[in-house]
Amino acid sequence: MAVFQLILCIIAAVVLSSFISRFIPKVSTPLVQIALGAIASQLPFFPEVDLDPELFMVLFIAPLLYLEAHEIDKSELLRSLKLSLSLAIGLAIATMVAVGFILHAIWPAVPLAAALALGAALGPTDAVAVSSLGKEAALTRRQTGVLKGESLFNDASGIVGFQFAIAAAVTGQFGVGEAAGEFVMSFIGGGLFGLAIGLIANWLFETIRSLGWETTTTRILMELFLPFLLYLAAEDVAHVSGILSVVASGLFIRFDRTGIGPNVARTNIVSNSVWGVLSFALNGAVFILLGMLLPEAMGTSWDDPGVSNTLLIGVILMVAGIVIVMRFLWVSVMLRLARDVNTHLRRKMTPERLRSAAVMTFGGAKGTITLSLMFTIPYMLADGTWFPMRDELIFVASGVIIVTLLLANFLLPLLAPNRSKDTSTEMTEITIEVLRRTVEELTGRVTDENRRAILMVIDSYTKRITRLKQRVGELDPQGYAQLQIDALGWEKDYVKQRLIDTKQDNGNVSPRDRDLEIEACEHLLDQIMNSLRHIDTDRNSGTMLWQIRGRMRALQRRTLTLIRRTSSRIRHTTPLISDDAIFAHSRMVQLDAFDHVIDRLYEEMTRDRYNTEHCSMLLLDYRRAESALRSRPNMSGSAQSMAMAEDVKRESYGIELGVIQDMFEAGDITRAQAKALRRNVYVMSVDADSSL
């Protein structure tokens, strides 16, 4: 029960940290969480529970490493592989040796093996912590790729080195040859085991999806359980490195994000959201625990008469200095030895390259993995005595983590200031290219039977391209986008008021005409709300609640319509209204709504609320839409064409996903851009399905 209470309290603290971080954006979230943990440990209702080190390794390290390996940009990783491996292996070993021998020499009370374990634990960096440092620093793609690649590989090397050092400290025996052989076997065996599991998992997920057995629940559960089961199987069954197995499997597994349809899109959206929440919760829990353990570890060491407080502070500063200086020198040397991609010549260290070395130095802050490793230090040695200086080692590691996080938090923005570069133009151009290729593919699939439906979908894509093109080169694209959102709001208000007036009518029109007007207005309201959900992507607060409310209102309208039509059929009070009649009347209501917006835009051009050029551009769009709508003949097959158009629309989303994958594989877009584009397609696919 105490463990359950502890988990609830930690989760509450993580949630609170997410709110507090919004008000102090220049302070990194990990620092906020450490402070909250330290405060929470002094509260009377916070339980005191000792976590099993092995449980901590499985619960936190395995899923975090797996997610980091799965999400890393593979192409960028390959480009910066040499530098990343140099930092991950060479620098990690050098840091382990330097910290171990220097700390043991200055503080002989710390056994050499334990000091080496501290050095190994300080090897891994935490790219997740750096990425949340106030969002004030702007790192280049190469710097980000190097830091993430290093964080991925040195997690494995640091953990393996730490485990051997701790084993030597516990048993008092350390054979270099035997340790090297075990290291190689564990490293290679762990990698091969992870690759084998990755192959099986890929085949399993693809087979389940192809057979139609996949559901959102089963898919998410399989994804979540995989890193835990993989780590346990590697350690307890195969007797190889569970960490290396998790990393290798995370790099290889692709979770088959392909597929067409709202169910697949919904599964992918939920999967990304669940992993995002889990990652934040696990990282936050680790830093909350760090803050909770700091007071006790500090108090034990601080109050110990046999330990000098000045020595404690000095050791923290000394170890942090060793780690930082060695890292800067190592990165500088590697940049000096690296050859230019085009000229194949080594380049001199200019002030700009030294600044880049400093960015990658302070960008390698210590965090989750270092702390998790220190928690796994056993309490007892093999002979039954207490592990020497355990609290002090955790205290020193925690101090170094705080020092590196503080330096990263306040120095990175100075070394790599965020120029607030607007990347929306680049993403807009990429989106236009994706839509253009999708239209080309749709054009090639036109037949006599589906011509009208495909042309309707192509028309919607053309409108999206037109809106995006208008943003490129605009002095204030946000202003024009806001005007589009407001114009849709005017349409919505007009139709809602018309719907209210119709429902309040006291018999001036026939029941059939009244029902036709109501259903047409409700159908048009659903279309307008879907358009708002697609366009209004800049709502920073209440987005999810706003969308849920909109969809609940749409569901309520459809339910009332179904009840009304069913009641009419049972009572035979009015003849049933055909879908074609509703479709035709909806176009009439939409024309009136267009006229209302056009009149409103003319009024706004005489005021100062909106840019006159924006109003003029949007007026032209509405005039064109109105002319196109009036020119369409009233055909009896309109409802059937709309149904066919919905099928074509779903097919177009599959084409869009294929175009995005082709552009990513060709190197035209980055992994992050492809992920953002895919997410947009998934959201639109789910919205299209919910509007039926």
UniProtKB/TrEMBL annotation:
UniProt subcellular location: Cell membrane
Pfam families: Na_H_Exchanger
Membrane-spanning parts: 55-72, 84-106, 112-131, 183-205, 240-257, 269-291, 311-335, 356-381, 393-412
ATP-binding listed as a keyword: no
Domain Cation/H+ exchanger transmembrane: 13-413
GO function term, MF aspect, one: sodium:proton antiporter activity
PANTHER family in alphabetical order: SODIUM/HYDROGEN EXCHANGER, SODIUM_HYDROGEN EXCHANGER 7
Record family assignment: Belongs to the monovalent cation:proton antiporter 1 (CPA1) transporter (TC 2.A.36) family.
Annotated protein name in UniProt: Na+/H+ antiporter
Organism of origin: Bifidobacterium aerophilum
